[in-house]
Design brief:
Elements (H helix, E strand, L loop, with lengths): L3 E4 L1 H4 L2 H12 L4 E6 L23 H19 L5 E4 L6 H9 L4 E2 L23 E2 L2 E5 L6 E2 L4 E3 L4 H12 L8 H7 L5 E3 L7 H13 L12
Parallel strand pairs: 1-2, 2-3, 3-4, 4-7
Antiparallel strand pairs: 5-6, 8-9
Helix pairs in contact: 3-4
């Protein structure tokens, strides 16, 4: 099983890191993908606030210029033409996916299931690989240029839809004061879990994997920052 290293601009301009990544790529020990963090990826277009830190909020032309800059740097310093992509801080739009496809990218992994904030939402996204519609990144479509591979996420119960409904109701502003989400977590009755050792211990990751397998998920996708 080979990992994919999603490389941002800061890593791609570090020669020591690139020597290691180039060796991984040359020996087929890993795939090298692109990871776009707007605040450290030229060209720059002014201050990067919380809003601009999400790729999904940037104008198309800015994303295109940053992506081209990042792709060229990765290729020049590792010898690998990246074909997979993940946006910094998650989030996908049909416009960005179409841009990726036009640049030869074949896989995106920017969808973060069961998550939403004031800037974007991944609620309702498929939980396993799909061909996204370029008009709606969270919906399967007819195009076959770019595959979306979401990270594995869900609950410690097999009925993810029910778990998500209960979690969202209890986490809503009107009920969050009850701390019910925390009570359910500590009682093991309901836990929202992401398959990442940064967020979850091994016991809960195994519980999520068991639930995903019970739901016949064809892919188990773990992620972490190195």
């Amino acid at each position: 099983m080979r990992p994919t290293y999603f490389v941002d601009y800061a890593v791609a301009e570090n020669h020591q890191a690139c020597e290691m990544l180039a060796q991984f790529y040359a020996t087929r020990k890993a795939e090298i993908g692109a990871h776009l963090h707007p605040w450290c990826n030229p060209p720059f277009f002014g201050p990067t606030t919380e809003v601009e830190s999400h790729v999904i909020n940037l104008p198309y032309d800015q994303v295109a210029q940053k992506l081209d800059s990042l792709s060229a740097l990765i290729c020049n310093n590792t010898g690998c033409v990246p074909r997979s992509f993940r946006s910094g801080r998650w989030g996908a739009s049909g416009e960005t996916l179409q841009l990726l496809a036009s640049r030869g990218y074949q896989v995106d992994s920017s969808v973060y299931p069961f998550y939403k904030n004031e800037f974007f939402s991944c609620e309702g996204a498929p939980l396993f690989p799909y061909w996204p519609d370029f008009d709606d990144a969270l919906t399967p479509g007819e195009q076959r240029l770019l595959l979306e591979v979401p990270v594995s996420a869900g609950f410690n119960i097999a009925n993810f839809s029910l778990g998500n409904t209960i979690h969202n109701v209890l986490a809503s502003p009107s009920l969050s004061w009850t701390k019910s989400v925390g009570l359910l977590w500590h009682s093991h009755m309901l836990r929202k879990i992401y398959l990442s050792p940064e967020l979850t211990d091994s016991q809960n990751m195994c519980a999520l994997i068991d639930a995903c397998l019970a739901n016949n998920h064809p892919v188990i996708h773990m992620y972490l920052h190195s």
